[in-house]
Design a protein that fits this description.
Shape: globular
Distance between the termini: 43 Å
Structural class: alpha+beta
CATH architecture: Alpha-Beta Complex
Largest sheet: 7 strands, mixed
CATH superfamily: Nucleoside Triphosphate Pyrophosphohydrolase
Mean pLDDT: 92
Strand content: 25-35%
CATH topology: Nucleoside Triphosphate Pyrophosphohydrolase
Length: 152
């Protein structure tokens, strides 16, 4: 929905960046210092069959936080999770598809929920923070930032 007399078919002469949301869900074992992070195996290119954080593109009429909640639910089955905005990641070459800025969100859980991979995630599971597989995009950097945020 547009307002202030802006035409519905307005275009720019200059390229525009894409925006995605990524979610760093961390699981803390309450009986130890073991932490895990939720990863998906990508079902689509780019990085098909690689591990990545859950995430994706917001809908045009969707708030970023709502998009993060939706993507988390679609790709992992995880719902009703409090998300905190972590940081924007804007390295010009972070995504081979195009210039893409990721807004990362994070959450800390203490009870391990049942996961159900879906949408464009072929698999979803918890991985020890100290023994992660190779990750797509700049997701290792995003996880490092979340670790600093959570002081772990």
């Amino acid at each position: 929905m547009r307002s202030n007399n802006i035409p519905e078919t307005f275009t720019y002469d200059y390229p525009r960046m894409l925006v995605t949301v990524d979610i760093v869900a961390i699981l803390k074992n309450p009986n130890s210092t073991l932490y895990k992070v939720l990863l998906i195996k990508r079902a689509n290119n780019p990085y098909k069959n690689s591990y990545a954080l859950p995430g994706g593109f917001p809908e045009m009429d969707e708030l970023l936080k709502d998009a993060a909640s939706r993507e988390l639910a679609e790709e992992t089955g995880l719902t009703n999770v409090h998300l905190t905005q972590l940081q924007a990641f804007d390295s010009p070459n972070r995504d081979p598809r195009d210039r893409n800025i990721a807004i990362a969100y994070t959450t800390m859980l203490i009870e391990e929920p049942v996961l159900q991979a879906g949408d464009d995630a072929a698999f979803a599971d918890w991985f020890p923070l100290n023994n992660l597989p190779s990750l797509a995009f700049d997701h290792a950097d995003i996880i490092r930032t979340a670790r600093t945020f959570w002081k772990i």
